Amino acid sequence: MLRPSLLSFYILALSSIVYAKPSFHAALQDIRIQARQQDGNNNHSVVLLADLATNGDVTRSGEIIRNILQTTAPATVDNSIVYTRPDAVSKSGQGGLDSAVCRKDTCCIWSYIVPTMVTAFSENGGTRCSALARSAIRMVPEFARDGSVGSGGADGSILLSAGELQRNENRGLGNYANLILSWRDTFRLYAPGISVADLIQVGAIVATVTCPGGPRIRTFVGRPDVDDRIPPPAEHLLPNPASSASNILELFAAKTFTATDVVALVGAHTVSHQYVTEPKYAGFPQDTTAGVFDTKFYAETGGAVPPVGVYSFESDKVLSTDAVTQPMWNDYAQPGAQTKWTDAYATAYFRLSLLGVQKLNGLTDCSGVLPLSKPVP
Ligand code: HEM
């Protein structure tokens, strides 16, 4: 059983006490890098977050989240976990969304929102995921860029803080941003508490499982939104396509991720397309199976020449050849690695989805509302 090291607790404690002081911050950065190295190259991060690090788990949700963060429980849910709307809603068959019994059940509203999302995220009769699904998946690391452990994160700031969405690094996310805000306006009529932070997060998980091969990642709701009077977070805290492998690993380590996590997470480029990085190849995907969440991306990145019609980001190429990350990369590139990769992706992604949320004990597990996962065709 994996347990968080004392060092990890030390990091969390330090980060909450001294985060604002630059000299301490530099020292903290060193400790985090050491922590990543000590975790080893084949392990996920087990660092606890927020109230789970300070108060432990005092609720059932807190316990489940702790187990997943410490990798003693899977971050995926299988297709047998299905949400059933409260009796009175399903029996009446009408007006369910607006009923008192639905309002009382936190997951009920999500059982109406999720099918709307699935329609937006599916393409070609459900055999691949759409451009909106890709935006949904990309938006998550974009908003997790701000600050360090315990600050910023999954708080909706990318849509709510003035000017953040318009930043260069967020180019191309405008259409999806508008869709999220329209979902918020529609569904808040029935559930005023729905947060933009949850819509972004649930949207990304629904988008992932809508792609054939995508994992069904455990889904919690209840994230509060950032106060929109607070200025947007700092820029440039996530890597860009020109970053070196060590720079990429350090920036993710500052968010508690190990090299194992990073290699798994960038596998999301299995469904991505690029538009602005290299205008000459605008619209090119990063592997030959567009819209499918498979491991082709690993096999097709890093060769001297990518397959015809594919564009590989430099940042992915350096990870595919770096001494630390290459072994894991090659592992996922092997035939038959699909489940190994999607399990690793889900574990790292689950952590990403909670960064910056202060009260993890207060979240509600609504995983049953997710659509069922589909195999790689
Ligand atoms: C080393 C870290 C990363 C770098 C440097 C990076 C860079 C990029 C770039 C440059 C684009 C294309 C922008 C364009 O030219 O239009 C892109 C797209 C995308 N990225 Fe990443 N990314 C990173 C990590 C991630 C992670 C961790 C995820 C998800 C977990 C992710 C998901 C996506 C998706 C889904 C798209 C496609 C968007 C679309 O097709 O519209 N990326 N990324």
UniProtKB/TrEMBL annotation:
Cofactor annotation: Ca(2+)
InterPro entries in the cross-refs: Ccp1-like, Haem_peroxidase, Haem_peroxidase_sf, Ligninase, Peroxidases_heam-ligand_BS
The Plant heme peroxidase family profile domain, residue ranges: 153-331
Pfam families found in the cross-reference section: peroxidase
Cofactor binding comment, as recorded: Binds 2 calcium ions per subunit.
Endpoints of the signal sequence: 1-20
EC number per UniProt: 1.11.1.-
Key words, A-Z: Calcium, Disulfide bond, Glycoprotein, Heme, Iron, Metal-binding, Oxidoreductase, Peroxidase, Signal
Family affiliation: Belongs to the peroxidase family. Ligninase subfamily.
PANTHER family: CATALASE-PEROXIDASE (PTHR31356:SF66), THYLAKOID LUMENAL 29 KDA PROTEIN, CHLOROPLASTIC-RELATED (PTHR31356)
Protein's recorded name: Peroxidase
Organism: Sporothrix epigloea
